[in-house]
Amino acid sequence: MPKQSLVATHHLETHTLADLIARVWGENPKRHALVELRDSLGKFGYGQPILIDDTSGRIVEGHGVLAALLLSQEDGEKPPARVQVQDGDWTVTCVHFQLDEGQATPYSLGSSRTLELGGWDDNLLLRVLNELQDKDALGGTGFHPEDIVSLQARVSGELPASFREVPDPQDDPTQPRSGKQITCPHCGEVFTA
């Protein structure tokens, strides 16, 4: 049996969503997939706690979760699992810890960026997504059937049927090269026009 210990570096506190609004980092450049977050919260409940730095008093992780919860509450939905209602206010448990002065912004950026940089093992992801789709359990994951089609095309080295080949401007000297980066909406491949 694992030994339980008192964690002195982190503590849990319950906050109303209204209280958490005052702790939002107003200059957060990260955007969130709110539709997918709401679906995930609706299916799995509130599982990844919002993280608050006690030095700055600011949320450093969980802005998207908070936004999704606020939208769901505003739309009159029932609270997801593990979200409590107290005097009509939705409340959630948050994790508090203490960063050094001035670390809240780089921590927030680093937390989001390191997740983004991790990427996926496309073959393994495709296998797992196909298994979930076969079990009708894809909902709440943020992945959609069209993502599986695009991933399958990328893994197999085939371009999706909707992708049309753009001639290389180098082959046609009458066409100027703009240097503009274009991303394929199906496979994510980046091309220079």
From TrEMBL:
It comes from Deinococcus cavernae. Residues 172-181 have a biased composition (Polar residues). Residues 162-183 are annotated as: Disordered. This is ParB/Sulfiredoxin domain-containing protein.
